[in-house]
Amino acid sequence: MTAKSVDSIVEEIVDAAYKIHFGLGPGLLEPVYEAVLAADLARRGLAVARQKSVSFEFDEMLFKDVLKVGFLVEGRVLVDVKSAPGAANTDPARIQTCLRLANLPLGLLLNFGAAKLKDGIHILANTFDCAGVAALQTKVA
After folding, report:
1. According to the 3-state scheme, what is the secondary structure of 114-129?
2. Which of 54, 59, 80, 114 could link 120 by a cystine bridge, Cβ 3.0 to 4.6 Å?
3. Helix (H, G, I), strand (E, B) or coil at 72
4. Hey, how many other C-beta atoms are within 10 angstroms of the C-beta on 3?
5. Residue 29 φ then ψ, to 5°
6. CA distance 64 to 140
7. Residue 15 reports pLDDT greater than 60
8. Distance of alpha carbon 72 from alpha carbon 107, whole angstroms
9. Which long-range contacts (C-beta less than 8 Å, at least 24 apart) are formed by 89-92?
């Protein structure tokens, strides 16, 4: 079996998010959306790791399992779930830093608190080039 492309993984995540937002509606707590989304993605055959710990090295010091990310899908796409009206409490900069530290290509910030989910979906790419930074090495635990 061939590995799914990042694009197809994102497509599955967004499709599941729309289904959940339509079915449950906005206003529930974040853990509810996280649990339902993780279960739906697993049912679709995607590997999901919730509350994943990330270790990284900086300035020749190892920081083991100090950074928690919402969850990883297929070990390649970071997903952070929020449930805040409007754009409050959503932090794209934090997601991009997590992508860089975990050496992941793409992240999704899903705000189920938005009245229309299309306004709450943010797809973020890891645009950091690590080639010239010898002190930064990452490992997803």
Report:
1. CCCHHHCEEEEECCCC
2. 114
3. strand
4. 10
5. -75, 155
6. 10
7. yes
8. 9
9. 90/120, 90/122, 92/122, 92/124
- Rounded CA separation 116/95 (Å): 21
The residues, any chain, with a CB within 8 Å of residue 136's CB and separated by 6 or more, are: 56, 57, 58, 101, 130
Q: pLDDT at position 141, please?
A: 39
Measured distance CA(117)–CA(120) in Å, rounded:
5
Distance CA 51, CA 41 (A): 15
**For residues 28 and 83, is the Cβ–Cβ distance under 8 A?**
yes
CB atoms near residue 72 (< 10 Å): 21
| pLDDT of amino acid 129 | 55
The reported pLDDT for the residue numbered 86 is 62
Helix axes 30-43, 6-24, angle to 10 degrees: 130
> pLDDT > 90: what percent of the chain?
53
d(CA 90, CA 107): 13
